[in-house]
Amino acid sequence: MKNLFFPLALLAALPAAARAEPAIDLPALIECRQSVSEFTALAPIAADPLKAVALGWRPLPQGNLFMNEYVLNEPITVFGRSADHIAMAGASIIALLDLPDPHPLADELKLETGYDADGKFMAGRELVSRDVVDAETGEPMIESVILSVSNVKSHPGKTLAGCTYSLDLPAEDEAPDAASGADRATPQA
């Protein structure tokens, strides 16, 4: 019986940092190099500002009703640029870059322009679309990862660049092959 409790005692003796969940790879999330499962690690942070503070993120007053914004204590590098201002908006994690014109970054990332008029710009590209099975319900789902670049009037002189992670039900007329995890679109290069 003694041997059964030894690993638990050893685990309890480890420093809290050694027992903690793996660190969130913020640049990888923003650059769409993760999946929905890694993105879900942000949910507790979005719900509790103290968890953001514990990560070294300083919550900012909400300047845009659709975004929770943070300043990072240490800048990160995303898309080859330094950023210390990030935001979460629904299923998206973005960096707010000091780029007054979003067009060059969208071109660099080979994104498709969705809207470009009246000072508003939105471009994006779906990098991953694959059939998966919801672990809790067993339902077939479609995992989608979309890279986007845009601007918004609430943040003049900034370019918003980041990733949207989602799980959606397939359309009724589709017959997904969820067991195979087959990709619908080519993953990012």
Give a written overview of the molecule.
Residues 1-21 and 175-189 have low confidence and may be disordered. The chain starts with a helix and ends in a 21-residue tail after the last strand. The longest helix has 12 residues, at 2-13. The protein is 22% helix and 37% strand. It has an 8-stranded antiparallel sheet. The protein is built from 7 helices and 8 strands, in the order ααααααββββαββββ. It has helices spanning 2-13, 16-19, 26-30, 36-39, 43-47, 49-54, 103-108; strands at residues 57-59, 68-78, 81-89, 92-97, 112-117, 120-133, 140-150, 159-168. It has one domain (23-168). Strand 1 and strand 2 (68-78) form a beta hairpin. The chain has 189 residues and is of the alpha+beta class.
Summarize the structure.
The protein has 189 residues and is of the alpha+beta class. The chain is 22% helix and 37% strand.
In total, how many beta strands? Answer: 8
Oligomer type: single chain
Number of domain units? 1
Q: Averaging pLDDT over every residue, what do you get?
A: 83
Widest β-sheet, arrangement of strands: 1-2-3-4-8-7-6-5
User: In whole angstroms, how far apart are the ends?
Assistant: 52 Å
Helix-strand pattern:
HHHHHHEEEEHEEEE
Helix percent reads 10-25%
Number of helices: 7
What would you call the structural class?
alpha+beta
How would you sum up the major sheet? 8 strands, antiparallel
Q: Note poorly predicted spans.
A: 1-21, 175-189
Rounded to an integer, what's the Rg over CA atoms? 19 Å
